[in-house]
């Protein structure tokens, strides 16, 4: 008798359409980031970030539509997000040295704290990706992987850098980067408390029930 392989771990999904999209969008975004690094042109930086964000949304949407979400795809997506973000941030810092401070805070937040949080779903075998972490703990999910949280995670920092550069409000990107870092620290502390059994997790739905 043959035992069916769970969808989440089927080897064929390593070469599935969503992972191909993830690979292609990463190559495109990193290629644009490299060109922006070379030219020092803000326009190419903006295009690079747009291609990264659009591709990051597209691969997840396709995975859900095709019922091809997988653990390998989630891990691959997390790794590729860091690759794109780090190279784009490096291009930003090389072009505009005044952004080094807030982007350094962002890289610690996204590269260390958010990475740890994003991979924590692997501790629960029945959670397919961070997008389903509400099944473990709804507050951590809302703070990190709900749609508003995802938009704030990278987008808010980049937008604040551009706005701050044009308006002279250099305090703005620092404030946004520090606020995002605080969210990650609080989320990490809550996660550790749950893992140590000192706090009960609060599973729920991805959003509040409409009345």
Automatic annotation (TrEMBL):
GO biological process: any one?
phospholipid biosynthetic process
- Which segments cross the bilayer? 103-128
**Gene3D superfamilies for the chain:** 1.20.120.1760
Domain of life the protein comes from: Bacteria
Give the signal peptide, or none.
Answer: none
The protein's UniProt keywords, in alphabetical order, are:
Membrane, Transferase, Transmembrane, Transmembrane helix
One GO term in the molecular function aspect is: phosphotransferase activity, for other substituted phosphate groups
Cite a GO CC annotation: membrane
**So what family is this one in?**
Belongs to the CDP-alcohol phosphatidyltransferase class-I family.
The protein in question is named CDP-alcohol phosphatidyltransferase family protein
The taxonomy runs: Bacteria, Bacillati, Actinomycetota, Actinomycetes, Propionibacteriales
């Amino acid at each position: 008798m043959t035992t069916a392989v769970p969808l989440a771990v089927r080897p064929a999904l390593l070469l599935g359409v969503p992972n191909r999209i993830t690979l292609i969008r990463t190559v495109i975004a990193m290629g644009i980031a490299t060109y922006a690094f070379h030219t020092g042109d803000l326009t190419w930086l903006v295009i690079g970030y747009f291609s990264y964000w659009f591709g990051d949304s597209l691969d997840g949407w396709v995975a859900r539509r095709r019922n091809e979400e997988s653990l390998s795809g989630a891990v691959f997506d997390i790794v590729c997000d860091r690759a794109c973000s780090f190279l784009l941030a490096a291009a930003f810092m090389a072009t505009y040295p005044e952004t080094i401070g807030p982007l350094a805070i962002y890289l610690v937040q996204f590269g260390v704290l958010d990475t740890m949080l994003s991979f924590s779903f692997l501790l629960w075998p029945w959670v397919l990706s961070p997008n389903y972490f509400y099944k473990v703990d709804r507050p951590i999910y809302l703070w990190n992987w709900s749609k508003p949280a995802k938009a704030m995670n990278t987008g808010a920092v980049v937008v604040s850098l551009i706005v701050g550069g044009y308006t002279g409000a250099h305090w703005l990107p620092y404030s946004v980067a520090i606020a995002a870092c605080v969210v990650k620290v609080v989320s990490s502390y809550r996660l550790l408390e749950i893992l140590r059994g000192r706090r009960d997790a609060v599973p729920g739905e991805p959003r509040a029930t409409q009345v």
